[in-house]
C-alpha cells in the first residue's frame, strides 16, 4: 500500500515535471538551459545577446541541467566579463575570442606602461618583462618600484574584480564589463524570477572612463574642465567643505573644459576607437603607443570607401550613428575605421556616438597658412592648442618597512607602507619640449622623492631616491584659439627654464629662477619647474626614449625669434619663410626697413 | 640695574620680605644689564605702580613682566619716552588702521576705508565689541578682525609658536626673541628649555631681520623679502621629507623658498631701508601702509628725476664716482647700483609713472579667493586634513578635539582683549600662485603690482550647527559692489634685472584680464576687483588697451631692449 502510494506520487511528480518542462518557453532549440526555470523573466542585456536565444549558461556558466539552486549555481560566474573566466564566456571560440586576446594584451590589462616606467627610472631596468599578470601569479620578492606599483597603482586595471575593495575602487575593473556594463543597480522586481539584466553597450558613458582616468595625467578630469585643486574644499557649502570632490579626499576646481566637450559635448568614446582602447593585440609598453586616435584623423581626415566589415558592424552595434551606405568613412592612423566621421558628398559629418547628433565639420581644402609655417613643422597640435595642463611638482614618498599596507593585487597586507606628499600644483603655462616622436609637445612633472625606513623604523639614506622626470601627454584641454607666439617664444616657463627672469648678460642669455629648490630643502640646485638650463643642459629625465627638453641650439633659435616678434607678428610674414636668411640680411643689409625704424627711435 | 622676573610661579617661596636689587638677584643671578641709559633698579620698571613706594612685596603678584606693554607703557617708559610713545601709538603698528578700516569697509560695516575711523588701540575710535548674534558679514567683521587679523599688532604678543614668539609694546621690536623663543642668557632663574622668553634681557636699537619676521611672515610683505611662500594647508603638503622627517614649521606653516629680494641676497636687513619714521610713524594717524612716508628706491639708486642718490640720506657717502651705502644694522658697506639710462625701459618717459617694483619684482603673493568660516558648533571632522592653517592656536585646538570622543564647543582668543570667546575661525583659499602680477594704480597714481586682498567668502555656523551665512561674498559699505579688493603694493622680491617687456605689455594677466579667455566660477577670481581705497584703482580701459596694443615705438624699443645686455 505504502509502496503504491509512493509510486503514484512519484509518477505524478514525473508527469508534472515533463509537463512543466514542456511548458517552459524555449525560443530556439538551443541550449539545455534550465536556469530559466527559476529566472523566468529576465530582460535582455542588449539586442545582440537576447536571453531567449542565449539562455544564461552560455555567458554565466554554471550547471544548466540542474534545477537545484546550489548545484545549478555551482560553477556560475556573476560577471562573465571578468578576465579570469572570459576565455570560457565572452571569449569562447564562437563569440569574441579575437577581442579577448586583444584586451588581455592591452595596457589597461597589463599595466605595462606604469610598470615599465617605474622600473626604468627606479631600478634602471631597460627591458621590462613584468606585467600585471606575472605579478598576480608569482609571489616573487618585490622590488621597491614593484611594491609601489602593487600598493599605490594596481587598483586600476581590467583584471581587478568589480566591486572588490571600497569606494571608487569598487567601481573599477571587471574585464569586459568594466567598460561595457555601465554602473547600475540590478533592479529585482518580483524575487529572482523577474529582474532587469544590466545593460551591455558599446555606447560607453564617460563616467565609466573617469572612474579610473582621474589620477596621474588626470585627462579624465581636465577634459571636463576639472582641475584637482590644492584640497581646500572652498568655497564652503553650508557647514561643510565644498561638494566638488574626487576620490581619496581630493577636491577640484573648474577651469575651461576642452572645446570638444564644451562646444560639441563629445564623450571619450567619440574619439577613442575600439582599437585604441582594447588594443590591436600587441603588448605595448605605453598607453601612447596603443592609442589610435590623433587630432589629424578628424581634422585632416583620410576618407575611404568602406563596404561592410568592422565599420558596418560598429555602426550596427552603436545604433545611433547613421548607417554607412554610399558614404566614405575616415581612417585612423592604425587603419581602423572612424565610423562616426562620414563624408556625404562634399560635406563631412561627425556623429556623436552617444546620441547620433550630427556635427558638420569644416575641413579646409588647403591647410591654413599658420599650420604650414616654416619652422613649425615639428609642432604637435597640443603645443599650441592646449590651454592648460595639470602639473604636480615634487612628489614625496615615505616608505616604511615597519608598517604594513594592502597590496591591490593579492588584497593582502604585506610589510612596507607608502605615504605620498607633494610640493605644489600648477595648471598654467605648460612647458614645452621634444617628445619621443620628435614633435614639440607639452611636458608635465613627475618628480619622485622616496625616503625609506627599515623594519626597525630607521631611516635609510642610501636606499632613498630622487628621480626627476618630465612627462609628455595630451592634457585634453584643447581650445580653438592657439597660444600666442610670445607665449612660447618669450616665456621662460614654456621654454622649459621654469618661472624666472630671462635676460642677457655680456651678450649671453642668463636666467634668474624664481623657485629656490635648495633653500626649500629639496636637495637639488635647480628649480622644480626647470626642465633645462638656459645653456640647454637637461635637468630632468623623461619617461620615453628620445623625449627631451629643447637643446641649446633650439633654445637659441626660439629665443632669437622672440626679438622679431611684435613687429613680425603675422604667420605669413616673409621673414619667416627662411628665417636664417632673414637674420643674415638683418645683420648685413643696413638699408632694411627694420634699421630705418630703429634709427627713428634709437637714442 | 633691574631685572626681568619671569618665572613667576616657581619662585614664590624664595621671595624675601623687602625687595632690593640684591634680593631679586638672589634668584636672577647672572641676568644681563638691559642696556645703556637704563640704569634703574628692578622695581623702577617691573613693579606695579601702586607698589612702587612699598619696600616689601610678598610674591611675584605685583611684578610686571613687560613694562612696555601698552597697558603699562605710559607709567614706565613714558617718563622718558613720551614722544616716542605718542609716535608709536599713532603708527600703523599700533593702530592696525589699514587692516581694520579696509576690512570693515569691504564687509559693509563702514562707508569708506579712508579716512580711517577705527583703530586697534584708542588712537581712533576703538574697534567695536563683537556682536552677539551676527547675521551678516557686516555684523561679523569686528569678530573676524579681533580673532583672525589682529594677532599681529603691538598691543598683543600674538600667538606662540616657532618663529612667532615676541613681546608686546616697545619690546615687540626692541627686545629680541629667537625663533624657538628660548632664553640664551645667564639668568639662573630662567628655564632655558622653556619657550616664551627673549634671547637676553636687553634692549636693542638695531633690529635684525628675524625679529621683524616674527610678525611679518606668512604670505605678507616681509616674508617675501627672504623668499618665503606658504605651502598649501592640506596635509599632503607637509613636505619635503628631509632625512626621513618633515621639517619643523616656522610661523605655523611649511614654506617654499623662492628667489630672495636682491637686497636680502646681498645681506641687507629690513631696518637698512625702514628707518624710525617708517616703523614708528611721524605722529600722523595714517590709514594705510603706502601713506606713511618711506625711503624710496630712488633715494639710494637715483631715478628718472634725479640720476644720483639722495644726499640727504645719512648712510650714503660718495666715493669718487661711486656711492656707498653703510648699513646701520650690520655696519657693512654696499656699493650702490645706479639707475642706468643704458637700460631701454629707463629711457621711456611714460615709465616715470611706473613703480620700480612693477618691473623689478620677480614674483608676488597672489592668494585668490579667501573662504572664511566662523563655526560656533563642535564639528571638527571635516578639518582633519586641514588643521594646519598657519594658526598655531587653531592647530593645537583641532588636534585636541579631533582626538576626543565627546567634543567641546570651540573657543578661541580675541587678540584685542585677550579673552577666550565662543566660536573659531577657519580659512581656506581657492588657489595661491606666485607667478602672476596684475597691474593697477597706487595712491600716488603710479603703476604698481596688485595682489588680491582679499576675495572673501564668509560663512557663519551658530552653536546649534545652523548655517547663518553660507559662503556670502560681502558687499562694500558704500554699495559699490562686492567686497573683494586687489590692492597695489610693493613686492619685496626685487630682482637686479627687470622682467621682460611682456611682463606687462601684451600680457593679458598684467592688464587685468585674468588667465583664461573664458572664465569659470573659479578662474574668474583671477580677474582683479577695485582696491578698497578710493585713490587707488584698477587700470581703466584706455590704460589696459595701451598695455595690450602694439605701437611702432613699442616694437622698436622692445627690440632694442632684447638686444641690450647688462653688465
What does this protein structure show overall?
- The complex is a heterodimer of chains A (603) and B (567).
- With 603 residues, chain A is α+β, with helices and mostly antiparallel strands.
- Chain A has four domains: 23-71, no CATH class; 100-253, no CATH class; 268-371, no CATH class; 381-551, no CATH class.
- The radius of gyration of chain A is 30 Å and the shape is globular.
- In chain B, 22% of the residues lie in helices and 15% in strands.
- Chain B has helices spanning 8-11, 21-27, 42-46, 73-76, 78-90, 92-95, 97-106, 137-149, 171-174, 209-213, 262-265, 270-273, 276-280, 297-301, 356-360, 392-402, 541-548, 552-563; strands spanning 118-119, 125-126, 228-230, 241-242, 245-246, 255-257, 316-319, 322-326, 333-335, 366-375, 411-413, 420-422, 424-433, 439-441, 447-461, 467-472, 484-489, 537-538.
- In chain B, helix 7 (97-106) runs antiparallel to helix 8 (137-149).
- The interface between A and B is large, with 79 and 83 residues.
Amino acid at each position: 500500500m505504502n509502496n503504491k502510494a509512493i509510486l503514484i506520487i512519484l509518477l505524478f511528480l514525473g508527469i508534472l515535471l515533463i509537463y512543466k518542462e514542456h511548458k517552459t518557453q524555449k525560443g530556439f532549440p538551443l541550449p539545455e538551459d534550465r536556469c530559466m526555470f527559476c529566472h523566468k523573466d529576465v530582460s535582455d542585456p542588449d539586442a545582440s545577446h537576447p536571453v531567449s536565444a542565449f539562455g544564461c549558461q552560455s555567458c554565466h556558466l554554471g550547471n544548466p541541467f540542474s534545477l537545484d539552486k546550489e548545484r545549478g549555481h555551482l560553477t556560475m560566474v556573476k560577471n562573465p566579463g571578468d578576465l579570469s573566466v572570459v576565455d570560457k564566456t565572452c571569449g569562447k571560440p564562437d563569440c569574441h575570442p579575437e577581442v579577448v586576446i586583444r584586451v588581455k594584451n592591452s595596457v589597461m590589462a597589463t599595466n605595462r606602461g606604469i610598470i615599465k616606467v617605474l622600473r626604468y627610472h627606479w631600478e634602471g631596468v631597460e627591458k621590462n618583462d613584468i606585467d600585471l599578470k606575472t605579478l598576480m601569479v608569482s609571489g616573487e620578492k618585490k622590488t621597491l618600484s614593484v611594491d609601489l606599483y602593487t600598493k599605490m597603482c594596481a587598483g586600476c586595471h581590467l583584471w581587478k574584480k568589480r566591486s572588490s575593495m571600497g569606494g571608487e575602487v569598487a567601481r573599477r575593473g571587471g574585464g569586459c564589463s568594466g567598460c561595457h556594463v555601465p554602473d547600475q543597480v540590478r533592479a529585482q522586481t518580483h524575487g529572482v524570477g523577474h529582474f532587469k539584466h544590466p545593460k551591455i553597450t558599446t555606447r560607453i558613458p564617460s563616467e565609466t572612463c573617469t572612474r579610473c582616468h582621474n589620477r596621474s595625467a588626470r585627462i579624465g578630469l581636465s577634459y571636463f574642465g576639472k582641475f584637482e585643486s590644492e584640497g581646500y574644499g572652498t568655497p564652503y557649502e553650508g557647514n561643510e567643505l565644498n561638494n566638488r570632490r574626487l576620490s581619496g579626499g581630493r577636491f577640484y576646481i573648474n577651469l575651461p573644459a576642452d572645446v570638444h566637450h564644451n562646444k560639441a559635448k563629445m564623450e571619450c568614446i567619440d574619439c577613442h576607437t575600439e582599437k585604441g582602447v582594447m588594443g590591436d593585440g600587441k603588448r605595448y609598453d605605453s598607453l601612447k603607443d596603443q592609442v589610435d586616435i590623433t587630432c589629424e584623423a578628424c581634422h585632416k581626415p583620410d576618407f575611404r570607401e568602406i563596404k561592410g566589415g568592422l565599420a558596418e558592424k560598429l555602426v550596427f552595434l552603436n545604433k545611433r550613428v547613421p548607417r554607412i551606405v554610399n558614404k566614405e568613412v575616415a581612417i585612423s592612423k592604425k587603419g581602423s575605421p572612424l565610423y562616426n566621421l562620414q563624408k556625404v558628398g562634399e560635406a563631412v559629418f561627425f556623429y556623436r556616438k552617444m546620441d547620433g547628433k550630427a556635427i558638420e565639420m569644416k575641413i579646409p581644402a588647403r591647410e591654413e597658412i599658420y599650420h604650414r609655417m616654416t619652422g613649425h613643422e615639428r609642432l604637435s597640435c597640443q603645443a599650441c592648442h592646449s590651454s592648460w595642463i595639470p602639473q604636480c611638482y615634487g612628489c614625496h614618498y615615505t616608505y616604511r618597512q615597519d608598517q604594513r599596507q594592502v597590496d591591490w593585487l593579492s588584497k593582502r597586507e604585506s610589510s612596507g607602507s607608502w605615504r605620498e606628499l607633494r610640493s605644489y600644483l600648477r595648471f598654467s603655462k605648460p612647458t614645452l619640449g621634444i617628445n619621443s616622436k620628435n614633435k614639440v609637445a607639452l611636458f608635465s612633472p613627475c618628480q619622485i622623492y622616496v625616503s625609506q625606513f627599515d623594519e626597525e623604523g630607521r631611516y635609510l639614506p642610501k636606499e632613498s631616491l630622487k628621480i626627476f622626470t618630465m612627462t609628455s601627454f595630451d592634457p585634453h584641454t584643447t581650445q580653438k584659439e592657439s597660444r600666442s607666439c610670445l607665449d612660447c617664444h618669450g616665456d621662460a616657463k614654456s621654454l622649459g627654464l621654469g618661472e624666472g627672469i630671462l635676460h642677457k648678460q655680456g651678450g649671453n642669455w642668463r636666467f634668474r629662477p624664481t623657485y629656490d629648490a635648495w633653500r626649500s630643502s629639496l636637495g637639488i640646485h635647480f628649480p622644480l619647474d626647470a626642465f633645462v638650463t638656459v645653456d640647454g643642459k637637461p635637468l630632468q629625465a623623461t619617461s620615453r626614449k628620445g623625449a627631451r627638453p629643447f637643446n641649446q641650439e633650439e633654445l637659441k633659435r626660439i629665443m632669437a625669434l622672440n626679438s622679431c616678434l611684435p613687429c613680425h607678428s603675422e604667420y605669413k610674414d616673409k621673414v619667416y619663410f627662411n628665417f636664417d636668411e632673414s637674420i643674415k640680411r638683418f645683420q648685413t643689409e643696413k638699408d632694411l626697413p627694420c634699421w630705418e625704424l630703429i634709427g627713428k627711435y634709437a637714442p | 640695574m633691574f631685572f626681568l622676573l619671569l618665572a613667576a610661579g616657581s619662585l614664590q617661596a624664595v621671595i624675601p620680605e623687602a625687595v632690593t636689587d640684591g634680593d631679586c638677584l638672589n634668584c636672577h643671578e647672572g641676568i644681563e644689564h638691559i642696556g645703556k641709559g637704563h640704569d634703574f633698579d628692578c622695581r623702577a620698571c617691573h613693579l606695579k605702580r601702586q607698589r612702587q613706594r612699598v619696600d616689601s612685596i610678598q610674591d611675584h603678584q605685583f611684578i610686571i613682566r613687560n613694562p612696555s606693554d601698552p597697558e603699562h607703557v605710559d607709567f614706565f617708559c613714558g617718563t622718558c619716552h613720551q614722544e616716542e610713545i605718542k609716535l608709536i601709538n599713532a603708527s600703523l603698528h599700533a593702530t592696525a588702521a589699514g587692516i581694520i578700516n579696509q576690512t570693515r569697509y569691504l564687509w559693509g560695516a563702514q562707508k569708506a576705508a579712508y579716512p580711517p575711523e577705527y583703530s586697534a588701540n584708542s588712537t581712533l575710535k576703538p574697534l567695536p565689541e563683537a556682536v552677539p548674534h551676527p547675521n551678516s558679514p557686516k555684523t561679523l567683521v569686528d569678530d573676524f578682525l579681533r580673532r583672525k587679523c589682529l594677532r599681529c599688532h603691538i598691543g598683543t604678543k600674538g600667538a606662540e609658536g616657532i618663529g612667532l614668539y615676541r613681546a608686546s609694546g616697545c619690546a615687540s621690536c626692541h627686545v629680541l626673541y629667537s625663533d624657538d623663543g628660548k632664553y640664551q642668557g645667564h639668568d639662573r632663574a630662567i628655564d632655558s628649555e622653556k619657550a616664551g622668553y627673549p634671547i637676553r634681557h636687553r634692549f636693542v636699537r638695531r633690529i635684525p631681520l628675524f625679529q621683524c619676521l616674527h610678525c611679518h611672515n606668512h604670505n605678507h610683505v616681509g616674508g617675501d623679502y627672504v623668499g618665503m611662500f606658504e605651502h598649501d594647508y592640506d596635509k599632503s603638503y607637509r613636505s619635503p621629507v628631509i632625512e626621513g622627517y618633515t621639517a619643523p614649521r616656522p610661523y605655523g606653516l611649511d614654506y617654499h623658498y623662492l628667489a630672495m629680494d636682491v637686497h636680502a641676497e646681498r645681506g641687507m636687513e629690513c631696518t637698512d631701508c625702514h628707518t624710525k619714521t617708517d616703523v614708528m610713524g611721524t605722529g600722523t594717524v595714517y590709514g594705510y601702509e603706502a601713506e606713511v612716508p618711506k625711503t624710496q628706491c630712488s633715494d639710494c639708486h637715483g631715478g628718472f628725476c634725479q640720476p644720483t642718490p639722495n644726499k640727504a640720506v645719512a648712510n650714503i657717502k660718495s666715493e669718487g664716482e661711486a656711492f656707498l651705502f653703510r648699513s646701520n644694522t650690520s655696519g657693512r658697506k654696499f656699493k650702490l647700483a645706479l639707475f642706468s639710462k643704458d637700460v631701454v625701459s629707463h629711457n621711456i618717459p611714460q615709465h616715470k609713472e611706473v613703480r620700480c617694483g612693477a618691473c623689478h619684482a620677480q614674483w608676488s603673493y597672489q592668494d585668490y579667493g579667501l573662504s572664511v568660516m566662523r563655526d560656533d558648533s563642535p564639528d571638527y571632522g571635516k578639518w582633519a586634513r586641514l588643521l594646519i592653517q598657519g594658526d598655531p592656536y587653531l592647530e593645537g585646538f583641532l588636534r585636541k578635539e579631533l582626538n576626543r570622543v565627546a567634543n567641546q564647543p570651540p573657543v578661541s582668543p580675541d587678540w584685542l582683549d585677550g579673552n577666550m570667546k565662543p566660536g573659531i575661525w577657519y580659512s581656506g583659499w581657492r588657489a595661491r600662485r606666485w607667478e602672476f602680477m596684475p597691474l593697477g594704480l597706487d595712491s600716488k597714481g603710479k603703476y604698481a603690482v596688485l595682489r588680491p586682498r582679499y576675495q572673501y567668502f564668509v560663512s557663519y555656523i551658530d552653536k546649534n550647527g545652523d548655517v547663518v551665512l553660507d559662503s556670502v561674498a560681502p558687499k562694500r559699505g558704500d554699495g559699490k559692489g562686492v567686497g573683494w579688493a586687489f590692492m597695489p603694493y610693493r613686492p619685496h622680491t626685487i630682482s637686479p634685472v627687470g622682467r621682460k617687456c611682456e611682463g606687462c605689455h601684451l600680457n593679458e594677466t598684467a592688464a587685468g584680464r585674468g588667465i583664461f579667455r573664458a572664465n569659470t566660477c573659479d578662474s574668474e577670481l583671477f580677474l582683479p576687483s577695485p582696491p578698497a581705497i578710493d585713490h587707488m584703482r584698477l587700470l581703466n580701459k584706455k590704460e589696459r588697451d595701451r598695455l595690450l596694443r602694439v605701437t611702432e615705438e613699442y616694437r622698436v624699443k622692445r627690440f632694442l631692449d632684447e638686444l641690450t645686455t647688462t653688465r
